[in-house]
Amino acid sequence: MEPVIDQAFxxxxxxxxxxxxxTGASLLAADPTADAELFRRGExxxxxxxxxxxxxxxxxRLVRRDLDETAAGLAAGLIVSEAARYEGLPPRWQGQxxxxxxxxxxxxxxRFSYASAVLGLYRLLLRLxxxxxxxxxxxxxxxxxxxxxxxxxxxMLTRIRALxxxxxxxxFPEEAEALTTKAxxxxxxxxxxxxxxxxxxxxxxxxxxxxxxxxxPYETAKAILLDAVAAANRCRAVWNSDLxxxxxxxxxxDLDAVELLYTSLxxxxxxxxxxxxxxxxxxxxxxxxxxxQSFLMAYAQRLxxxxxxxxxxxxxxxxxxxxxxxxxxxxxxxxLLPVLAARDMAVTDTAERMFPxxxxxxxRGATDLDGWTHGTAAADRARMGGNGPELRGGRGSR
Length: 398
What we know:
Strand order of the largest sheet: 1-3-2
Order of helices and strands: HHHHHHHHHEHEEHHHH
Strand content: under 5%
Largest sheet: 3 strands, antiparallel
Number of helices: 14
Radius of gyration: 23 Å
């Protein structure tokens, strides 16, 4: 059995052409006794991916991008099987496992096609580069890495999730604006509450990190939008354009907020862009790609200033004890700004330690005036309130 596996791997995994895949697939298709060992080897490749800093969602996202949905399902099956070996999983892993696609049935539509797809997947897994870990791999000691306590989702995040879901579902821009504004206010206040509570209890909690997919097309605009959301929620985002994700560094409640808000704003922006584009097409214009690129760039740029202004306003209200809810600050807490400054410094130090070689990415300017105008208007409809300086671009890239 093993010689067949080894021959198939030698032909398929260490060459770049389709001929090697065909040779390896033919060997495997002719020997059904190799099936169990083939799957076991796949679990080993997945385990190596964890050791190189990858997580389940990262692997499936890259496989889907570079191969296809069938390969993503094959990867998901290996991941679920391999993860079952561990008694406990790192934070965020269960949520990633729950979101994986279903694995396709084995040896369908035929043994050769299945073996070819599996070998193509293994070739990709074998070549995954090491990346900065954002948490411990399963089964490893968490020493030296931030490991937040396991807990159910806080009630505040449940409320925020519900508000954003309503904002995505409504067909009325004004209602979406009000719901999203309220969600960001709750996020900012929740972050302040957590910071003050940590300071008063002398918590040893340190910043952690997560990865969020930034998929093509128009990934530059999406990375800028994610950077704006991260900055407004006291986090740092570092974009890896080659691998299609941004690593976001921050304290755990703020990371949750960033992921929720970015996903929602991307949905809202895409819906608004589709509607605006339909109007352009009805008028006889066909510059679809440039229109969309300019739309999303404007949307990201304008939202950056709105988000920053809203966070600054809520922070000022909490410090002064004004507004609709200052949380544990009560009538005003003069210690708030030093506490937040200390947390900002901790996030910055952690990000610089994790990513010591980041560079500033130059962003190509928008070229479609109509797209920019419509994107700005869409951002205003989804605005967080207030005014502030516009975000110029991503904070860093790999």
